[in-house]
Amino acid sequence: MITLIINIKELLQIRDSSILKVSGAEMAILPTIKNAYLVIQNGLISDFGSMDDLPNINPEKCIDADGKIVLPSWCDSHTHIVYAGNREQEFVDRINGLTYEEIANRGGGILNSATKLNEATEDEIYDQSKNRLEEVISLGTGAVEIKSGYGLTVDGELKMLRVIQRLAQNYPITIKATFLGAHAFPLVYKEDHKGYIDLIINKMLPEIAKNKLADYIDVFCETGYFTVEETEQIMEAGIRFGLKPKIHVNQFNSIRGIQAGVKHNALSVDHLEIMKPEDIEALKNTDTMPVALPSCSYFLSIAYTPAREMIAAGLPLALATDYNPGSTPSGNMNFVVATACIKMKMTPEEAINAATLNGAYAMGISETHGSISIGKKANLIITKPISSYYQLPYAFGSNLIDIVILEGEIIA
Ligand code: NIG
Ligand code: FE
């Protein structure tokens, strides 16, 4: 099956497929072709170039993208979209003055979602989660990482990971699964941290590995959650079971979680709202991708990741949604890109690089996703007619997406 897209006003993020991420000053460059064509063959990008060089081919399908921009689908490398119910009451409690931390300390927060998750059937969780997945696909996301972490029991965690596996089987979007049993200590283990960590290492991890239910391991390394030592212990166990770490660090406090992640060759370290100079230093010349989650900062009214300082230090940066019921009930990558520009002072070029190629790197798929490159998956966004790609962050509340293509097929 050959699909041809012609008259593309501007084709964004064209790269040689050997480029797996962009860092520092390179992030300001977004390579494009104006007045372009693109050929899709068997779900992959097989050719692209200027309309002046349009090859003579006979496609089964031709899309005229006159006035429209084409870019790779968003790569959302950090989400928790498998969950049950919602936490709208906590949202109102925060409006009325409580903090995220205070709500968690009185048994709300992650533990509230864990109760709901354990009470729901696997089918109920699947049905709720698929609606969220369908929504993010329609918003231009073509690859997504999904975490467990609202089970906090052997059965609950396995149930979540099976739901993620079922979503991956039933939808054309690329999905990576992350085991986040170390999201919070369940109430019964409040005074027995060692007991819960033993459960993670000796009961959850072997089952997960045996059934190939996860690609990565995550830990919420934060004051009141998992210490750096506990985080290291859990990362090491995950690595023994073949799971690379991708961890939550520096959301509220800088406690040397980044250094622990780098030491264990984490694929990514995520959140990074609170960054000390030594945290930035620790990330230099490593293979670990820093990931910012600006919708979380927006929703909780907390600090934004200091993107300018990090990029000035030569670091790469990825952007993701953090879609979850507590801190970020939104999976809209378009909003993430706009908020990164508006609140973190990233340029449109930097934000688009961060939400495509670097996002793909942060979930280990940048050899196949995240740029317009020959041989990569034809996961594409075709915009409505727009004046330039600046519109994407500028018109922050508008949906500028006309067509979503996944593996060469028009999905939305
Ligand atoms: O990434 N910070 C830890 N985990 C999630 C929020 C979890 C929740 O509140 O349900 C996050 O923000
Ligand atoms: Fe998260």
From TrEMBL:
One of its GO terms (molecular function) is imidazolonepropionase activity. Pathway: Amino-acid degradation; L-histidine degradation into L-glutamate; N-formimidoyl-L-glutamate from L-histidine: step 3/3. It is found in: Cytoplasm. N-formimidoyl-L-glutamate binds at Y150, N324, G326. It catalyses: 4-imidazolone-5-propanoate + H2O = N-formimidoyl-L-glutamate. Its cofactor is Zn(2+); Fe(3+). 4-imidazolone-5-propanoate binds at R87, Y150, H183, Q251, S327. Binds 1 zinc or iron ion per subunit. It is an enzyme of class 3 (hydrolase). Residues 69-410 form the Amidohydrolase-related domain. Fe(3+) binds at H78, H80, H248, D322. It comes from the Bacteria. The keyword Plastid does not apply. InterPro entries: Amidohydro-rel, HutI, Metal-dep_hydrolase_composite, Metal_Hydrolase. Belongs to the metallo-dependent hydrolases superfamily. HutI family. This is Imidazolonepropionase. It comes from Flavobacterium fructosi.
